[in-house]
Amino acid sequence: MPCSLCEAAMVDYAVPGSLQQFAPDETVTVCTNCLTIESDAGDSTAEDLDAISEELPAGDAGVGVVLLVDLLDALATNRSEIEELVDQLEDEGSDPMLALDRLAEDPGLDPAVDIQRRSTQLQQLVL
Ligand SMILES: [Zn+2]
């Protein structure tokens, strides 16, 4: 099923248990172009995150960063969740802020969320 915003291909990911609270569903479908997330009622097919961007961290952290981008769309509303998610990703050894910067600069993406701007706002909130 193509993305409802930009009609690019979408891929399905099973959301890891530790990240479930940040996701709209147990399985999400993510647009490979604009990073829009929709809950997915279908069978989970855990695909390689490289289908979205090679800049994403591998494994669960990559899914976490994708969820983070989605939450950033409403930074004020989701502030506590965002802070919790960033903390959790950092605790697990990844660098979500760096991952956001890299995603923002990925020429293969056209994110629906202005990642660069949101990331700057987030840093002002968190630091
Ligand atoms: Zn899209």
Describe the overall structure:
The protein is of the alpha+beta class and 127 residues long. The chain is built from four helices and three strands, in the order βββαααα. The protein has helices spanning 60-72, 79-91, 96-104, 115-126; strands at residues 10-14, 27-31, 37-39. Helix 1 packs antiparallel against helix 2 and helix 3 packs antiparallel against helix 4 (115-126). The structure holds zinc ion. Zinc ion binds next to loops.
Enumerate how many helices there are, as a single number: 4
How does the overall form come out from the CA principal axes? globular
Order of helices and strands: EEEHHHH
Tell me, rounded to a whole number, the average pLDDT: 92
- For the secondary structure, the number of strands is 3
What portion of residues is helical? 25-40%
Ligand set: zinc ion
Estimated radius of gyration: 13 Å
Please indicate the count of domains. 1
Describe the main β-sheet briefly.
3 strands, antiparallel
**Beta-strand percentage?**
5-15%
Strand order of the largest sheet: 1-2-3
Counting helices, strands and paired strands, the structural category is alpha+beta
N-to-C CA distance: 39 Å
Low-confidence stretches: none
